[in-house]
Amino acid sequence: MNARYEPENRYQAHLLRLLRDHGPRSRSELGDAVQVSRSKLAVEVDRLVELGLVEPAGLAASRGGRRSGIVRIASATRFVGVDIGATSIDVALTNGELEVLGHLSEPCDVRGGPEAVLERVFALVDKLRQVDPFPRVHGVGIGVPGPVSFREGTPVIPPIMPGWDRFPIRGVVGRRLDCPVLVDNDVNVMTLGERHAGVARSIDDLLLIKVGTGVGCGIVVGGRIYRGVSGSAGDIGHIRLDESGPTCVCGNSGCLESYFSGWALARDAEAAASSGTSPFLGRRSAETGVLTAADVGDAVTAGDPAAMAVVREGAARLGRVIAALVSFFNPGMVIIGGGVAGIGHPLLAEIRSVVYRQSLPLATENLPIVLSEPGGTMGVVGATHLISDHLLTMG
Amino acid sequence: MNARYEPENRYQAHLLRLLRDHGPRSRSELGDAVQVSRSKLAVEVDRLVELGLVEPAGLAASRGGRRSGIVRIASATRFVGVDIGATSIDVALTNGELEVLGHLSEPCDVRGGPEAVLERVFALVDKLRQVDPFPRVHGVGIGVPGPVSFREGTPVIPPIMPGWDRFPIRGVVGRRLDCPVLVDNDVNVMTLGERHAGVARSIDDLLLIKVGTGVGCGIVVGGRIYRGVSGSAGDIGHIRLDESGPTCVCGNSGCLESYFSGWALARDAEAAASSGTSPFLGRRSAETGVLTAADVGDAVTAGDPAAMAVVREGAARLGRVIAALVSFFNPGMVIIGGGVAGIGHPLLAEIRSVVYRQSLPLATENLPIVLSEPGGTMGVVGATHLISDHLLTMG
Predict the structure, then answer these.
(1) In CATH, which superfamily holds the domain spanning A201-371?
(2) What pLDDT sits at residue B395?
(3) Which residue in chain A has the smallest CA separation from B243?
(4) Chain B: nearest CA to A359, how far in angstroms?
(5) Domain B79-194+377-394 class in CATH
(6) Within A7-148, where are the H helices?
(7) Smallest CA–CA separation between B331 and chain A, in Å?
(8) pLDDT of residue A133
(9) Residue in B239, B256, B369 to test binding to A, most A beta-carbons within 10 Å
């Protein structure tokens, strides 16, 4: 196929988007979906085949007349999705329908700085590409755990990413992999993944609350990510709940994150271990030397009362913020994701109880509050959605 | 002009919207604004003149060649805007550019029920129409102080509007005034007014916090009102700040409204008068028998310390909610409106101080927080915008 994934007009872009999101379709099904003359459709589909962006895929069952030809996104199409977390990186290779062909994950401290982290990313991309018969990557999407200037593709004063401020990720990765690159924050990227392939398909207005090391919120309005006027929309981790609350990493006190987040849970776990209120965490601390949010999750699973109390109290704080956002935003779905969501049902139950009790009945009567699949590929898939959508918008 | 304000195609609708929002324009200016061939433009403008929706208005200054004809919305175009508040009704008659030709306001208790209140509205419309040389109203927009099913044009379980639940306002008014009618809540209608003719022109993402008897929020995303999946978006008055807070009109406790709203201020004023902490309010109460939020405003203006403390404390609570919403939504402007906004600078100063201290720097660095003009016509103008936009969207 072509070196560039570049439709020639909006019409072709629309067809490519349909084939990406819904898989192979017959020409007559495409005609039904876009409501256009048979002849106009035939011209544009033929042109997409000519450009190498689409390929024939057999014949559909007859609908009475001649059997309609099925087409699909060219099988040589390749996107790379990168999800850089605070403590790990995930890289996936997908086809043009954003199906994951390969996925690699490894621990990696984002504080190592952009050069070191991106070298690891390139190594993982190389590894995934070794077994791939097709030579070209058509675009790379990248999520990073901090605020991003979407236009410039650079992190902007990211609190947990020292050394990354204004680093030109887009240019560096684009030159190395020789293709278009887009960068967004990890929460938006995960939200796009849930919309494309996860629990939020066909939901047009939704919130995704990601609780990882920090806390952020992805906002979808009318099927599109809402970023706000300076790109900081959804940055809810530092909403102040109580000015006399715990000290936060941001230097203020009483922020949401200071009550409930990956780092706050690790802090609470250390306290519960050293004070002796949690025998489970005490033992774990003696074994491993350092406690994380995942240890709190294990303690909850083991039925440790102190850990359960910590989770319940933190989740109730988060639930009160979500309840306010639900009253304000009236979404069609709320998704709880990120590493801390791995705690699972005890966390979800507390959040649901607070939101259903505190938000307006009109806003909650048909509101699902669900967990994202833990350890999934929503981040990397969302990153490929980001870049492929960008390429289709330009067409 | 025509009985119906009904463009024949999207193109005509676009031209009418330009003329409504920007006033008379020459044909060549219209051509620049819509980027279309001269001949196509001429055909559509001529057709609008033929339909009686647009009329010639002289010749523009020469731009080198032949002088271009100016056109404007037909001067016989009439819209009616109705803003029903908890304790007053406002009715305005506008031309097709939504300029107010006449505006009447009178006290009216919404608890009187729909028949009685709408009779007053019809009386005011008749009064405004008496001096009008043109015979037809082309559309009516109505704002009501409660949740509305936008599609059906009826209030839905509105807490402060007994007797209005599911009342078919749209049908009743449409039959009486023989024209299309649209109903929305008062906050959305006011927000549309500020976008059309107030402080928010050209701001695409904004929040309007209306503090009247209750508290609500208008949300604009990408230049359009965002209503949420069940139409309750912006319903922030019952966000729970503290479950052990004051009892609210909704039956819960600690809602935002129970701390700061028209009714909460009236309650606090009564307390300050009867306990003797506010000599000003004590005297006012003796004179009038009942205290309102407006009396608190007068007391603040007179420098009464107890009233100032009540306002400062309530405004700080409201400010904390706004600060959270600013972090979440990253708007381009925040407008404070509604009757209580008449307290003016002392209220605004407290809100600004809390928001600028508590919200993210990225979200506040270019964020104006401003007062709506008190006692203005934003509600009625917004209501005419609602109905005219609806008519233009159908075209």
Answers:
(1) ATPase, nucleotide binding domain (3.30.420.40)
(2) 44
(3) A358
(4) 7
(5) alpha beta
(6) 10-22, 27-34, 38-51, 114-130
(7) 6
(8) 86
(9) B239
CA pair distance A208, A202, nearest whole angstrom: 15
* Cβ neighbours of residue A20 closer than 8 Å, sequence gap 6 or more: A73, A96, A97, A98, A388, A392
Contact: B228, A236; criterion CB under 8 Å:
no
Look at A37-41, A242-246, B219-223, B228-232 and tell me which has the smallest mean pLDDT. Answer: A37-41
CB contact under 8 A, B362 and A232: yes
Closest CA to B97 of B120, B64, B71, B116: B71
- A329–B232 C-beta distance less than 8 A: no
Pairing status of strand B215-221 against strand B224-225: antiparallel
Please determine whether the domains at A10-73 and A79-194+377-394 fall in the same fold group of CATH.
no
Name the β-bridge partners of B69.
B59
Give the pLDDT confidence of A138-184 residue by residue, as tens digits: 999 999 998 888 788 899 888 889 999 999 999 999 999 999 999 99
Q: Per-residue DSSP letters for A262-301?
A: HHHHHHHHHHHHHHSS-HHHHHHHHHHSS--HHHHHHHHH
Res A246: pLDDT: 96
Interface A-B, measured as beta-carbon pairs within 8 A, has a size of: 117
In DSSP notation, B8-73 reads: SSHHHHHHHHHHHHH--EEHHHHHHHHT--HHHHHHHHHHHHHTTSEEEEEEPPPSSSSPPEEEEE
Contacts 24+ apart (CB under 8 A), B195-201: B195/B220, B195/B223, B195/B382, B195/B385, B196/B21, B196/B98, B196/B381, B196/B382, B196/B385, B197/B98, B197/B378, B197/B381, B198/B335, B198/B372, B198/B373, B198/B376, B198/B378, B199/B333, B199/B335, B199/B370, B199/B372, B199/B373, B200/B333, B200/B335
**Alpha carbon of B114: minimum distance to chain A alpha carbons (Å):** 22
Q: Does domain A10-73 have CATH number 1.10.10.10?
A: yes
CB within 8 Å: B239 and A324: yes
With beta carbons under 8 A apart, name residues in chain B contacting A217: 328
Q: What is the pLDDT of residue B189?
A: 96
Chain B neighbors of A221, CB-CB under 8 A: 221-222, 226
Nearest-Cα residue of chain B relative to residue A320: B240
**Which positions in chain B touch A323 (Cβ < 8 Å)?**
239-240
Largest CA distance in chain B: 77
CB-nearest to B205 from A228, A323, A329 is: A228
Q: Taking the complete model, does pTM exceed 0.80, yes or no?
A: yes
* Cβ-nearest to B327 among A157, A221, A235: A235
What per-residue confidence (pLDDT) applies to A395? Answer: 43
Asked whether residue A2 carries a pLDDT value surpassing 70, the answer given is: no
Which residue would you say has higher pLDDT here, B33 or B181? B181
Q: Tens digit of pLDDT for each residue in B18-46? A: 999 999 999 888 988 887 788 889 999 99
DSSP B109: -
What residue segments make up the domains of chain B, in order of their start?
10-73, 79-194+377-394, 201-371
The per-residue pLDDT for range A281-321, each reduced to its tens digit, is: 999 999 999 999 999 999 999 999 999 999 999 999 999 99
Chain A contact present for B2, CB below 8 A: no
Angstrom distances, CA of residue A289 to CA of A262, A269, A340, A378 = 17, 12, 20, 32
CA dist., res. B69 & res. B364, Å (int): 45
Q: What is the rounded CA–CA span in Å between residue A195 and residue A201? A: 5
C-alpha angle A342-A346-A350 in degrees, rounded to nearest 5: 115
